[in-house]
Amino acid sequence: PMPVCHAQENVLQRVLQLPVVSSTCESLQRTYVSTKEAHPLMASVCDVYERGVQGASALAMWSMEPVVRRLEPQFAVANNLACRGLDHLEEKIPALQYPVDK
Prior knowledge:
With 102 residues, this protein is an all-alpha fold.
């Protein structure tokens, strides 16, 4: 089997690009958007939640940056191991390469 993981590649990006995962995410996104459009009260609640999550994410990234920089070599090793594991899963489970509806 040919290794697919490259040094600059992120295992999370690879997982999100799997057809089974990306089609599920697209379906959830469509449902979320249509629910917001159909229910104005739900839309206002969702908007408040989205703003809160964005603020929390920015704060978390800012506070974690020094730690992430120090742990970068360990993250690279863990990412490489995870990519190898994903290579193995993709080889053993062909269904990962198909959208959910298939």
